[in-house]
Design goal:
147 residues, 6-stranded antiparallel β-sheet, two-stranded antiparallel sheet, 4 helices, 8 strands, 25% helix, globular
Length: 147
């Protein structure tokens, strides 16, 4: 049986107005996340995508942020694969608008160590590593789901 787990975060309208995508991704890097794989590729939802067709390609920083800006201007869902630099754990980040984000915890999902092979996502582990990224923003709502 496959487990799906996600963390949904809503930011305040004030945060939405002040959120800069380059700053957000710089914060991710500062907190131990990367979006560039060891082969130099970045996995994103491309421009014009409306069917979650993730693509990987080598992009320089300016091209990457240009794509994000265009997607934001066209009110498209921004999607990017994030990996921890200190482990194999990662996630797909979806930004539906600049104040609603979903982290799909699908890459080497971190689990709670428990007896009897209980398959429960360790949401605390993720929150400890995601919330510092948003430290200068007002988080209004957080929900953690597993099904």
């Amino acid at each position: 049986m496959s487990i799906s787990a996600s963390i949904n975060i809503s930011l305040s309208n004030h945060s939405r107005e002040s959120l800069s995508l380059p700053d957000l991704f710089q914060n991710f890097e500062n907190e131990g996340w990367t979006y560039v794989k060891s082969n130099g590729e970045i996995t994103i939802l491309p421009l014009g995508d409306d069917d979650y067709n993730w693509t990987s390609s080598v992009l320089n920083r300016d091209s990457f942020f240009d794509i994000l800006k265009k997607k934001q201007d066209q009110k498209e869902i921004i999607g990017i694969e994030l990996m921890r630099v200190d482990s194999e754990v990662g996630c797909e980040l979806l930004i539906f608008n600049t104040n609603q984000m979903m982290f799909s915890l699908s890459i080497a999902r971190k689990k709670i160590n428990a007896k009897d092979d209980i398959d429960i996502t360790d949401f605390s582990w993720y929150l400890e590593r995601v919330l510092p990224v948003l430290k200068n923003l007002q988080v209004e709502q957080i929900s953690c789901e597993q099904f």
